[in-house]
Amino acid sequence: MPARVAVTGAAGVLGSHLVDHLLRSGSRVSAFDLRPVPAAPGLTPFTGDIRDPRAVTAALEGADAVVHCASALPSYPVADIRSIVVEGTTTVLEAARAIAVPRVVHISSTAVYGLPRLVPTPEDHPHVPVDPYSSAKAEAETVAERFRAAGMCLPVLRPKTFLGPRRMGLFDMLFQWAEEGRHFPVLGRGDVRIQMLALEDLVEAVATVLRAPDEVACDTYNIGAAEFGTLRQDFQAVLDAAGHGRRVVSVPGRPAVAVLRALERTRLSPVYGRLLSKLLADSYVSVDKARERLGFRPRLSNQEAILGTYEWWRAQRATAAPVTAGKGGGQTSRDPWRQGVLGLAKVFF
User: Fold this and answer.
1) How far apart are CA 307 and CA 289, in angstroms?
2) Which CATH number goes with the domain that contains 323?
3) Does residue 290 belong to any structural domain of this protein?
4) Contact status, residue 149 vs residue 281, Cβ threshold 8 Å
5) From CA 259, how far away is CA 195, in angstroms rounded?
6) Which residues lie below 8 Å from residue 115, measured CB to CB, with a gap of 6+?
7) Mind listing the pLDDT tens digit for each residue in 335-347?
């Protein structure tokens, strides 16, 4: 493991777990985020904007490697998404090149593929973004490719949606409805296969590319669960764990899509658009390349990841500060996303 690692987005869900892992592994960590990161043995906090060259350079100075986790969420305003994801990535890579950091790990997303019809989706599938978030992620990868072509050792990881402690977002809605003893709806039969990823497996994937030799690390890798079933199976596992005897309920696909599209236009919640893009078709990527070149094998299945996150959610719920609708929901991956009008639909389930 590199002796000193700089982590951007260190206060986020992935960043904070990665920082903990690096410290346990004996690395010294420079933790950079817009939000303050508490000091700790072996950790030096840096507070600043990812688009500020001076602040970024100060955080990266002396690092043996950088892991660029900082990003926007799909719920951000369009201009902010592009600014943070594309301009922020450019700033990090320019700073790393200027001070000759040996390796930069860029955390991208399988969102760059859009809604591919080819599953499992390989790394050489074209970028076909479908919204501002996936467009920005694809453009940031184009920036990264330029720096890699110029000689930087620049691993790119494309994780599927990951779950684990501190991660909320869309999953909070499922967990709430399960805990309240409600049925949970899926579009159509719910038989689409949606691959996810345990947060601890993503952290291990990052650690793997930090340790790998340049000729192996300097490549692009999909990261996702090796074992996964259908949405109906994964959601039902949560309802079963809640212990109320509730079931996943099918909702006719076409009428539901029409309603969700109308709700998306209201902008009352980011939930609707993401549901449309995530839940309508099979979505899983090939992880063969990561297994064969990196020797990386995810440890947890979809169900193990989602049930582990639900257990954490239940344990912390009593002490967590409530998120006021319209104020803070969806601002970070730690926040529940606002359910908007969908919250009212609970009375029917």
Assistant:
1) 27
2) 3.90.25
3) no
4) no
5) 25
6) 128, 130, 277, 280, 281, 283
7) 655 555 455 455 4
